[in-house]
């Protein structure tokens, strides 16, 4: 802690560079900036304490400062060990009016290249808002999550506290799960009711991504969800924009910064043709690559075929692939056996949320495999077969690990949904009994509206007769809830 702003970031002297980047990002984030104009004077988030776990990038800095501008108290960690932009983290801590010697911003616990132990230490820090006058700990009222790690920590903590202890890791558990168990064991020793108390103070969570949303629906289905959740991912102005157009930008950005390989003419295999897969395939085709797609869902497979891609099984093409991209949100989509059959120096890249899409654990324990660091987040793996593969970001989100994630404009749409979702839970909690919700369509349309002017787009206005003819209010919402866009 210095200057009263608890933090752990790489280097506060990076703040000036971060501040310049944030200033430019603000220009590209009209949705967030207009929320500041609309709501800032009324401070609707006053009294909210938000624990944020989301890639600590320049765009996230604009999100954090928007939440603060609306009155919230905020603490932040990244949701991935490689995704932090250290200059953005420094600028958020230093704040607009502070200096590296005397920071005056927001607590952040994030740096690029955390170990898993450091990552889970940082995630814990976002739940600690100091103590009240009687010395009792203060926790968050809201979580803003990406991938569900912060939500997972609370739920696991509550579960083990109720059981009276934390179990040992089972043989099949991942190394990371062992780290989580260790963190919870330590916290139970020092404060046996810590997570139960924290959970009781949490009014809800807003979740950013497909994978985190999936975890929330599972918790709810099993009757274990402890507080209401807003599924931000399934706002149309999130998943149909960020997941698709965002990756269309940041996937090639990551490939270029990591390898600078020419994509044109290469054979690229994309696993998964959901929103992220669609954007990935589009970007690579745009660079002149020959793109092959795999799917398990016949509807998505047919979409890919109609979009002009060859739809095939990974096993049938291993020997021809130059670049392999996973975008499924599923586990073990590429096995160690398959990795060993790839062409020499094939590039292996994941853009799904977790690092288990490609069997990295299997690769790390493969006898005779050797890992050579080309540069941070780019590793050549020499395999016992005699060939090498290039693995980006150790199998974690490479668009954030090797590049800087999605660009500001598309993140503005996502994060405008996030702020509206936080506002809903803070100001209209009675409308949200424990469950998983999407934002109402008029808010989704509002997010889109806020981004049209900046692109010079002029919306056509319905005449009253036209509105009546198609049966919608002239001010919207314009579509039924199940419309697919
Ligand atoms: P989605 O559900 O729209 O698409 C995933 C697709 O993968 C589905 O169509 C599914 O049928 C398919 N699939 C599942 N298992 C498969 C397998 N074994 N082989 C081939 N296809 C398979 O999900 P979305 O929104 O595209 O997200 C995918 C992942 O990307 C998630 O983990 C999400 O959290 C993450 N994500 C990453 C972003 C980034 O910046 N890198 C941005 C947004 C989401």
Question: Would you write up a description of this structure?
Answer:
This protein has 485 residues and is α/β, with parallel strands linked by helices. The protein has two domains: 12-146 and 148-207, Adenosylhomocysteinase-like (Rossmann fold, 3-Layer(aba) Sandwich), CATH 3.40.50.1480; 247-401, NAD(P)-binding Rossmann-like Domain (Rossmann fold), CATH 3.40.50. The chain is built from 19 helices and 15 strands. It is globular. Bound molecules: 1,4-dihydronicotinamide adenine dinucleotide. Residues 209-211, 239, 242-243, 247, 271-277, 294-297, 300, 327-330, 333, 351-353, 397, 399, 406 line the site of 1,4-dihydronicotinamide adenine dinucleotide.
Summarize this entry quickly:
With 485 residues, the protein is α/β, with parallel strands linked by helices. The chain is built from 19 helices and 15 strands.
């Amino acid at each position: 802690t210095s200057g009263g702003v608890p933090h752990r970031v790489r280097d506060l002297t990076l703040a000036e560079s971060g501040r310049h980047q944030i200033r430019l990002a603000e220009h590209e984030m009209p949705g967030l900036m207009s929320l500041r104009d609309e709501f800032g004077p009324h401070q609707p988030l006053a009294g909210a304490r938000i624990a944020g776990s989301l890639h600590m990038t320049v765009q996230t800095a604009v999100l954090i400062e928007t939440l603060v501008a609306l009155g919230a108290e905020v603490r932040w960690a990244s949701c991935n060990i490689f995704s932090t932009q250290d200059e953005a983290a420094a600028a958020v801590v230093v704040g607009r009016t502070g200096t590296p010697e005397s920071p005056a911003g927001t607590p952040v616990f994030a740096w690029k290249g955390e170990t898993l132990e450091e990552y889970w230490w940082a995630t814990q820090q976002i739940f600690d808002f100091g103590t009240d006058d009687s010395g009792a700990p203060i926790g968050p009222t809201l979580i803003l999550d990406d991938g569900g790690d912060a939500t997972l920590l609370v739920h696991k903590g509550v579960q083990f506290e109720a059981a009276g202890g934390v179990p040992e890791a089972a043989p099949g558990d991942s190394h990371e799960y062992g780290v989580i168990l260790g963190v919870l064991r330590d916290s139970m020793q020092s404060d046996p009711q810590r997570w139960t108390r924290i959970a009781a103070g949490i009014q809800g969570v807003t979740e950013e991504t497909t994978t985190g949303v999936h975890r929330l629906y599972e918790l709810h289905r099993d009757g274990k969800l402890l507080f209401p959740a807003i599924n931000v991912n399934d706002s149309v102005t999130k998943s149909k924009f960020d997941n698709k157009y965002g990756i269309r930008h940041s996937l090639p950005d990551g490939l270029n910064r990591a390898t600078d390989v020419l994509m044109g003419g290469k054979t690229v295999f994309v696993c998964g043709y959901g929103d992220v897969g669609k954007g990935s395939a589009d970007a690579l085709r745009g660079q002149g690559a020959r793109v092959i797609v795999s799917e398990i869902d016949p509807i998505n497979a047919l979409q890919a075929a109609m979009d002009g891609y060859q739809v095939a099984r990974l096993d049938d093409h291993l020997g021809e692939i130059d670049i392999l991209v996973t975008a499924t949100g599923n586990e073990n989509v590429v096995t160690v056996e398959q990795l060993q059959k790839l062409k020499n120096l094939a590039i292996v890249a994941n853009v799904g949320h977790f690092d288990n899409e490609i069997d990295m654990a299997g690769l790390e324990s493969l006898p005779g495999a050797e890992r050579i660091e080309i540069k941070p987040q780019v590793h050549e793996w020499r395999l016992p077969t005699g060939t090498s593969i290039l693995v980006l970001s150790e199998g974690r989100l490479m668009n954030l690990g090797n590049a800087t994630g999605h660009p500001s404009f598309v993140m503005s749409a996502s994060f405008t949904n996030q702020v509206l979702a936080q506002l809903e839970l803070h100001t209209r909690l009675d409308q949200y009994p424990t469950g998983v919700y999407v934002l109402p369509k008029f808010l989704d349309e509002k997010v889109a509206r806020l981004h049209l002017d900046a692109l010079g787009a002029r919306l056509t206005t319905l005449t009253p007769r036209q509105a009546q003819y198609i049966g919608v209010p002239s001010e919207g919402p314009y579509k039924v809830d199940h419309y697919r866009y």
